[in-house]
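Researcher: Next sequence.
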Amino acid sequence: MRRALFWVLLAACQSGGQPAGPLPLPPRSEVCTPVQDAPLPEALQWKRVAAFETDLLTALALPRESGCLELGSYVCGEVHRVALGGQDVEGSAQYEPAASPLATTPLVVDRVVLGACAERVRRDQDVPVVFEEVDFAAERVPAAQVEVQAIALYRRLLTRDPNPDEVAVLQALARDLSPTDWAVASCFAIGTTTEAVMF
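Model: Next structure:
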């Protein structure tokens, strides 16, 4: 602090008592300091059976016992616990869950999501909860309704709004399918993305 004050006073004295103005900047170096690289993204985590089921059924407003059912009676999450990352102590004495997804995990994920989406669409034909913008009696779902419904689905299943390309995909899908088939297919397409089954 004293040294800095000394140089300021010296500069003022040399200029006849007038302020010397700003101090000269150090010479510029032609070599830039490298910018620190952005941190690498964290590894994706596999949503295990409880988190996967809870997120899906909450998004579709379905109770667990009526989401995906095998043989119309058995909850898919219980039947396929091991493939969804759980352990099966009583059935196969498996005390530790699998460390990574099994070969059957993608098929089971598809089965669970398809079952839940189909059940939600079946219920919404009587009392709309998720597919409020879809007229199931119509021949096709209009593009404007697809966009509004796509936003609702993305917010429910992925907690974000879709981008224009994602909306365009669902609009293209609506041109070839009945409202019922489109509702199931769009729900399934969003619910089985990596974004939905990983975190």
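Model: Residues 137 and 179 are 8 Å apart (CA to CA). The mean pLDDT is 83.
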